[in-house]
Design brief:
Helices cover 47% and strands 11% of the residues. It has 13 helices and seven strands. Helix 11 runs parallel beside helix 13 and helix 12 runs antiparallel to helix 13. The longest helix is centred in the middle third of the chain and has 28 residues.
Length: 326
């Protein structure tokens, strides 16, 4: 009887010759990201062997996601691991790399991976000169510091930057963690990171402010009200871009916008500057894409300019079109 044919590898999986060998894994900085990535690598067959953690919170994360993995000093992590994840805040990364290289902690042939969105592989140059293999693998995901993060890595895009000779290894590691590699040029890393921060970090601020305002307006469950609305808005935006714009600014309802600002000044003055900035940006994009009529844009931009300076503007039906095209 003939043996069954070996299954063909999926297109998203690296070829056997491109997969990294089973590696010992260390984590320097047990914030929200490092333990989750190490736990994901363990599911792929790699072996976490050491983690550095300082605060009580980081130690708890390490214990939850990497049980039985010893907590040691950063230099000891590098001594034990073939693959080291440097998962520290962006501003701390250059100093950490220089310190590890200067003290001789970096070993030749060691894979050194950082997860900063801001930096590419060049920030690892001090370690590279010591013989390390530098990789920048940034998961485009928000992390909670719990086991749910490991599941969220499935299908998550990673911004990948590495020397050309390490590109296959970098992409293979991302795929083993369940992610999708997206190659980012070294010089494009700051712009790439700014784009993600603009979309994700500021979204959290906007949603939190919206929930607070709904609560003040008497809504018992702001999260339940916003969930379907924001989900639909996000889906529409990802599908259609600026064509998904709607609401009073895109319609040119100057009177409604003026009324919004008046209420925000009264109940939540700290939100006014953000509202005005986003309204102006929305008006510019709606106008550029033909969604906002030029004759209505002038009145709307006038209201935004007046309210930004604190001048009063009467809100009334004459200030904008009637109806709602949502």
């Amino acid at each position: 009887m003939n043996a069954p044919a070996a299954p063909e590898p999926r297109a998203s999986e690296p070829r056997a010759e491109d997969r990294p060998a089973r590696l010992t894994v260390g984590v320097v900085g047990a914030g929200r990201v490092g333990p989750a990535l190490a736990a994901s690598l363990r599911l792929a067959g790699h072996r976490p062997v050491a983690v550095s953690a300082v605060s009580d919170a980081s130690r708890r994360r390490a214990a939850e996601l990497l049980p039985d993995v010893p907590v040691v000093e950063p230099a000891r992590v590098l001594a034990l691991a073939d693959l080291v994840l440097l998962t520290v805040p962006d501003d701390a990364l250059p100093g950490l790399v220089e310190g590890l290289a200067d003290t001789g902690a970096v070993r030749s042939g060691q894979l050194l991976v950082h997860t900063s969105g801001r930096y590419g592989a060049r920030v690892l140059d001090p370690a590279r000169r010591a013989g390390a293999l530098p990789l920048a693998l940034h998961p485009a995901m928000t992390f909670t510091g719990t086991a749910v993060d490991v599941q969220r890595l499935a299908g998550c895009s990673f911004g990948v930057t590495a020397p050309e000779e390490l590109r296959l290894a970098a992409e293979a590691l991302v795929i083993e963690m369940g992610g999708e590699p997206e190659w980012i040029a070294e010089e494009a890393r700051p712009l790439y990171h700014a784009a993600l921060a603009l979309g994700a970090n500021h979204l959290v601020t906007l949603v939190a402010q919206s929930m607070e305002l709904l609560h003040k307006a008497g809504v018992a469950a702001p999260d339940r009200m916003l969930g379907p609305l924001l989900g639909a808005a996000l889906d529409n935006a990802l599908r259609s871009g600026d064509a998904a714009l709607t609401g009073p600014v895109a319609r040119g309802d100057a009177g409604t916008v003026a009324a919004h600002v008046a209420e925000l000044r009264k109940h939540a003055p700290g939100t006014v500057a953000g509202y005005l900035a986003m309204a102006r940006t929305t008006a510019d994009r709606a106008l550029a894409h033909g969604l906002l009529k030029p004759e209505l844009a002038e009145d709307l931009l006038g209201v935004l300019a007046e309210t930004a300076s604190g001048a009063a503007h009467p809100a009334g039906p004459a200030d904008g079109p009637q109806g709602d095209d949502r």
